[in-house]
């Protein structure tokens, strides 16, 4: 099943505590593709009810131009989750793109949120199915049901890797969220590939979670490049200093974008009658064919989404 949700850029997904009016206001002026206002881990239990009201006010009256607007509620098994969804959607559903559900350990969690969203959308006269779902995979139970989770509802837009809780659930000998450790191998390889493969299979986006060493710019870049190498679409940002790196790593370089467009243009020409109807040709020093075209499509599409301008053009016979 391929998902037909609207495409929303998510190179940089910035986490903002829903209890901090100051940080919420600052986030509106930052170059993040997505802002998610948090009601879960970054908000103390005693502050959660007030944070809901703060988030509703911010969604309704803040300037979120060009940003995907998301609220992370508490996980489905908590005492807060139900009221989180009710208050946020009743108060600001018209100004909300997605609900992020953490700690999705079984498909029933997605079914619960899907049904509740439908009920509140009907109650409030909102477009049914309009609010998307972002599902966080944060433990071995969720990973083992990822196929069912990904296909539980057409609302789902992203699968998100939550490294902190995953590391804890697996009893990994680590104390820093998102850092692979110094053991000489990457324990997240299988997890990242599984999430990426499932997302691609069903037309979803794959998003990597946080890197908690906010001053370690080299470490954040390495973690971002690792996720990008698996085909992930973006990564969480915990500090404004991580934004530029995420936006850079998860967008094509100018050279790659130009090459992708050249491949598509050249292949379209050479496979046409005017180009001789050939299936495999040389583009510079490289042979291109149908497989090359398929490889070029995602890079070209990403470049167009991010408004990149071409600096080269294909010239037959050149």
TrEMBL record:
<dbReference type="InterPro" id="IPR015813">
    <property type="entry name" value="Pyrv/PenolPyrv_kinase-like_dom"/>
</dbReference>
<keyword id="KW-0460">Magnesium</keyword>
<feature type="binding site">
    <location>
        <position position="138"/>
    </location>
    <ligand>
        <name>Mg(2+)</name>
    </ligand>
</feature>
<dbReference type="InterPro" id="IPR005000">
    <property type="entry name" value="Aldolase/citrate-lyase_domain"/>
</dbReference>
<protein>
    <submittedName>
        <fullName>Citryl-CoA lyase</fullName>
    </submittedName>
</protein>
<dbReference type="InterPro" id="IPR040442">
    <property type="entry name" value="Pyrv_kinase-like_dom_sf"/>
</dbReference>
<dbReference type="GO" id="GO:0000287">
    <property type="term" value="F:magnesium ion binding"/>
</dbReference>
<dbReference type="InterPro" id="IPR011206">
    <property type="entry name" value="Citrate_lyase_beta/mcl1/mcl2"/>
</dbReference>
<dbReference type="Pfam" id="PF03328">
    <property type="entry name" value="HpcH_HpaI"/>
</dbReference>
<feature type="binding site">
    <location>
        <position position="165"/>
    </location>
    <ligand>
        <name>Mg(2+)</name>
    </ligand>
</feature>
<feature type="binding site">
    <location>
        <position position="138"/>
    </location>
    <ligand>
        <name>substrate</name>
    </ligand>
</feature>
<dbReference type="GO" id="GO:0016829">
    <property type="term" value="F:lyase activity"/>
</dbReference>
<feature type="domain" description="HpcH/HpaI aldolase/citrate lyase">
    <location>
        <begin position="11"/>
        <end position="240"/>
    </location>
</feature>
<keyword id="KW-0479">Metal-binding</keyword>
<dbReference type="GO" id="GO:0006107">
    <property type="term" value="P:oxaloacetate metabolic process"/>
</dbReference>
<keyword id="KW-0456">Lyase</keyword>
<feature type="binding site">
    <location>
        <position position="72"/>
    </location>
    <ligand>
        <name>substrate</name>
    </ligand>
</feature>
